[in-house]
Amino acid sequence: MTTNSVTTPSVGSTKPVSRQAIFVGILLALGLIAPFAVYPVFLMKGLCFALFAAAFNLLLGYVGLLSFGHAMFFGWSAYITAHAAKEWGLTPEIAVLLGTFVAAGMGAVVGWLAIRRQGIYFAMITLALAQLMYFVALQAPFTHGEDGIQGVPRGHLFGLIDLNETMNMYYFVFGIFVLALFFLYRVINSPFGQVLKAIRDNEPRAISLGYQVHRYKLIAFVISAGLSGMAGSVKSLVFQLASLTDVHWHASGEVVLMTLLGGVGTIFGPTAGAYLVVTIQNYFATLGSWVTIIQGVIFVVCVLAFRAGIIGVLRPFLKKRGIEA
Amino acid sequence: MMTLFGIPAAALFGQLLLGLINGAFYAVLSLGLALIFGLLNIINFSHGAQYMMGAFVAWLGLTYLGANYWVALLLAPLVVAAFGIVLERTMLSRLYKLDHLYGLLLTFGLALIIEGVFRNLYGISGIPYAVPKELAGGWNLGFMYLPIYRAWVVIASLVLCIGTWLLIEKTKLGAYLRAATENPALVQAMGINVPIMITLTYGFGVALAAFAGVLAAPIYSVNPLMGSNLIIVVFAVVVIGGMGSIMGSIVTGFMLGLLEGLTKVIYPEAASTVIFMVMVVVLLIKPAGLFGKGA
Amino acid sequence: MLKKALIGAVALTALTAAQAQAQYSDNKIKIGVLTDLSGTYSDLAGKGAIVAAQMAVEDFGGKVNGVPVEIVSADHQNKADIASSIARKWYDAEQVDAIAELVTTAAAIAVREVSKEKGKIDLVSGAASTALTNAKCSTTGFHWTYDTAALANGTANAVVKNGGKSWYFLTADYAFGHDLQAQTERVVKANGGEIKGAVRHPFPNSDFSSFLLQAQASGAQIIGLANAGADTINAIKQAKEFGITQGGQSLAGMLVFITDVHSLGLETAQGMMMTTGYYWNRDDETRAWSKRWSAKMDGKMPSMVHAGTYSSVMHYLKALAAAKTDDGMKVAEQMRALPIKDASGFAINGKIRADGRMVHDMYLAQVKKPSESKGPWDYYNIVRTIPGDDAYQSLADSKCDLVKK
Prior knowledge:
The complex is a heterotrimer.
Chain A: H1 14-37, H2 40-62, H3 71-86, H4 92-114, H5 119-139, E1 149-150, E2 156-157, E3 161-162, H6 166-188, H7 191-201, H8 203-208, H9 213-238, E4 241-242, H10 249-262, H11 269-284, H12 290-305, H13 309-320
Antiparallel strand pairs in A: 1-4, 2-3
Helix pairs in contact in A: 1-6, 2-6, 2-9, 2-10, 2-11, 3-4, 3-9, 4-5, 4-9, 6-9, 7-9, 10-11, 10-12, 10-13, 11-12
Chain B: E1 3-4, E2 7-8, H1 9-40, H2 47-65, H3 69-90, H4 100-122, E3 138-140, E4 145-147, H5 148-170, H6 172-182, H7 184-189, H8 194-220, H9 226-241, H10 246-266, H11 274-285
Antiparallel strand pairs in B: 1-2, 3-4
Helix pairs in contact in B: 1-5, 1-8, 1-9, 1-10, 2-3, 2-4, 2-8, 2-9, 3-8, 5-6, 5-8, 9-10, 9-11
Chain C: H1 2-15, E1 29-35, H2 46-60, E2 63-64, E3 67-75, H3 80-93, E4 98-101, H4 105-118, E5 121-124, E6 141-143, H5 148-161, E7 166-172, H6 175-190, E8 194-201, H7 209-218, E9 222-226, H8 229-241, E10 250-253, H9 258-264, H10 266-269, E11 273-276, H11 284-296, H12 304-323, H13 328-337, E12 351-352, E13 358-359, E14 362-367, E15 380-386, H14 388-391
Parallel strand pairs in C: 1-3, 1-4, 4-5, 5-6, 7-8, 7-9, 9-10
Antiparallel strand pairs in C: 2-3, 11-14, 12-13, 14-15
């Protein structure tokens, strides 16, 4: 997707960096004290989806590829982690890494197929492949179909820290989230990230400059798939459950919504979008289908009138104050 | 019992026939998608929701107005097309200058809203819609008992598909449409009102979906979620066929339905995935699709 | 009688003994009814279960030892993950003390995991799988209304004895369907019957045609429907459309609720055998309670899940009063100790076993011919009463680790 309404973030000069540091520091502090004020399970759910959306945003915001099948990475790695933790008794950090690697591997195959086409075709192909993987999940014995993998043990981190303690679990999730987001930030602002943006803005030019566009797209796809998988893995430990909901195309749609609402191609946008959507779900959970309607309305409003998203709108304001968001 | 390739012939023909019926729905829906894509360059994600609306309009008409099946078959496509035209005029038309992906996202959002509203009103357990009296009962074909209604679905879809193909390939209106697909600016310059043509094309594509919905109502019962799972299969059908030709989407639709039926006999576990696997193979061999032009 | 006596006792306790004796956290009792409010099972459970739970609270007097009781409810959409996260939120953040109803085995097991972890009470009524009292059993978890073993012992026995020897299954592809099929196979084989095969269909499903063709090709006498609710209804209707019943095969619905018979109509459903834990038109007591429920539900009549929800919530309230605390373990102890009796006429000869199974009399019923039915919802002839101990899995076969052997 061309993000013509959004300016490409430039690497700031020395002085604004300190402002940036303060801004990031405040966010970090908020994240650290939040579980004392807000229901931690809700916060953890938000963090999982925020990571998922941030990973998705790497593709949509920085390569211009709209994947409509990211739920396959999110949901499948949830299954892998849940199975590894429950049936093989792996420690949580290994189980999460395993889920992440499997998702990255799937990303390599799916990406290799899907980047043969662009635009709408790319979206439809990823959607169809995700549906294929959904049916595989429905039928594979180890996923337990409709029942899902239930009663997944959270286990002890490194064999030491008991993650059944809600606070321990929260800081585990928060730590993963911060590290992953930092990694994404470095990717985006690396020379590799600059090439991705060049491909997004003008693919033929990038080709004529001699870049192997397909290879760049594929690497970005694998990173995005892997981190989406990491989000799904963590979620399966938080809720001690891996189910079909996370592989369903609704989950693919939700992550698009979160990214769009928060701001495509921004660093903190997906997080903002994810928390907003999760809050809506939380608030309207007892009303069932109202969640779907509200999500649909947000989609329509975002596409018609709010294409920059929340952070996209705030960005000029923040930029004046030396903050890159 | 007679067997073919070690499979009971009755089961084979029965499943193939059921596959043909599913194929009829794939064909009508992918035809509508292809028409809309040809002129508007957007993928209409709400196609499944509009198919579902067709079924609901039929049921609502029967329940509140006493309109029978045959009336519904005419009326529901018109009502849903009118709804579609309103959407196109008020929302979709604002996006033509932007990236086509925004059209996909908008129609996805619309699909969620439509689906959610019907779920809220009618739940998801499905509402029965009786087979019309004229088509009740069935024929015993020896290898299977074929409900007359299912045979009617195949025939009606075939007639509709061929009719649409003739309309586009053989009439003046169709010629304008094809020309506008190739080069809208030129057609506009020749004094033809392209925006109206776009609106009507969208309406017609949506009407096809609603027609399929009415056909489906007596088989699948009227259910808010009936379109959302079907539409993804239809997307795969569209990717396989390529969006190049009208005939291509019709043929692909029926063929894949048959293939699905065949899979149900040979290896039932793969029945729900076989179309997606075909898509993968086609992407590897001919990325533009079986009937597509260029990449 | 007992109810009045108990209310009297409660009132007395409130007057004489110091209220401080009763320890109810946050001075409120909250019971969550978690059910399917929009999907396949919304008729047989759904809103009717919330109404039944509210009736239990009202009949109990609205208060336990002076502490008010509140019913909250939510739609789990038959999804394990939604059920699990609502249960977690209810227990963690909204002071819910017990969760009732829980149709759909996948959702019930998900809630069971959370309840077990938090030491809270769950009162399963709508879900069927015997897993709830075997591998997934818990001290604070109760399975109230019926289960797959009882259904198979009732219906499959009767069908095989009537000559239905060879079976083919259409099975809903999740824990409940698998379990119901396994239980039925066990009974069929024990009676000298034969299993020709099975096909699993997605849940929920609307088009059964290709599955029915497979069942037809198998040549089995009986097509066993190991599914429930709208799935069963659709399968029966489409079997008629494809001429399967005319072809000499018959269908056996392993789990049929009165609400299903109502939507099928007697013309289609007549003659069908089924096992049920409750029938509203069985005696004066059931009729009286059902008519009260019916008045709140636009003239519908309760399914066994509705009556079971009432019965389980009522028993929970009595146990709360007797335990003088809402601590899950202590309440569970009282639930096992107190006799089970309530106004719905549900739990005849009811008792709770170590594995959490509430064992009570079940009924083998046959759907009436249209000519036999005397009015709306008059659908069943009770063929025989199955004593609880015969209907349910015996404790000796239990895989529950709470059962001492």
